[in-house]
Amino acid sequence: MPEVSSPKRRPLIAANWKMNKTPSETELFINEFLRALPPKLDSDVVVCPPFTSLALARSLIEGTAVALGAQNINENVSGAFTGEISPAMLVAVGCHYAIIGHSERRQLYGETDALIKKKIKAAFQNQLTPIACVGETLQEREANKTLEVVERQIRGALEGLPSAETQRIVLAYEPIWAIGTGKTASPAQAQEVHLAIRNILKDQYGSQTSLSVRILYGGSVKPDNMAELMACEDVDGGLVGGASLDAKSFAEIVNYKSKKRAGQ
Ligand code: PEP
User: Fold this and answer.
1) pLDDT tens-digit map of 220-230
2) Does the N-terminal or the C-terminal CB of the chain have fewer CB atoms within 10 Å?
3) How many angstroms separate the CA atoms of 117 and 109, rounded?
4) By three-state DSSP, how is residue 229 classified?
5) Are 119 and 190 in contact (CB under 8 A)?
6) Does residue 50 lie within any of the structural domains?
7) How many structural domains does the chain have?
């Protein structure tokens, strides 16, 4: 029988290095990572180093299919915001993506849904694609509040956003109990929430938007579990923390299809 082409969206796999890697460590990583990648990528691949490595990373990935992202942005254009970085500054050093509302920023720096909404708007105004993060704590999951929490975060983040922009947003479902803990959500747990997110998008923006938006899974993604997560209908990629710090391991995650074939 001829193979039926998959209706899935093009996968996106992003590395979130958090506060790790100096410029010289960035250089070592990117050179090794590029050597480990196949000539043609089946996914969009994004590396999000710390701000201090962005310019160098840009020069190293120039001419490759790997794109650059920031881990955070400020929602303002410019001015008296000591220590902050504007979206336009990030675009100027080559960023195409920005992670917004990561749970560490929500929990450690008090970012609210209202602030995240402003940051998403500012990203779009500067042609940066937001990778907007949502996810529940362990306590919320145990109290059966996962879908309620995620729905509140999504509605809060996207409120008032024009449909054309919403279609281009990337969402990342990152259960907080799975981040950096080694506990991955099972494919069934991930799929349940990803489908619920797609239904929220359908309800608010219609089928076309809900079918266009890429929803990444994040939370202890590793070379060994990427293929099974990607096999879920509504999982369109991964946002990878710890396992993206090692060039070989991140390249294996990006190459998850060949790993699956090898294991079959
Ligand atoms: C993250 O922080 O976005 C993340 C998913 O981290 P880890 O992969 O280490 O769980």
Assistant:
1) 999 999 999 99
2) N
3) 16
4) helix
5) no
6) yes
7) 1
Tokens of 77: 């254009």
Specify if 56 maps to a domain. Answer: yes
Cβ 219 under 6 angstroms from ligand 1: yes
Which residue's structure tokens are 């450690």?
A: 108
Rounded to two decimals, the pTM is 0.94
Residue 174 designated active-site:
yes
As a whole number of angstroms, the distance between CA 246 and CA 28 comes to 10
Residue 259 has pLDDT above 90, yes or no: no
Active-site hit among 111, 136, 174, 252: 174
2 inside domain: no
- CA quadruple 187, 189, 191, 196: dihedral, nearest 10: -170
102 catalytic residue (yes or no): yes
Q: Which two tokens stand for residue 251?
A: 């390249």
Nearest-angstrom CA–CA distance, 217 and 240: 8
Please write the tens of the pLDDT for every residue from 175-185.
999 998 988 89
Distance of CA 262 to the CA centre of its chain: 26
Q: Is the pLDDT of residue 262 over 90?
A: no
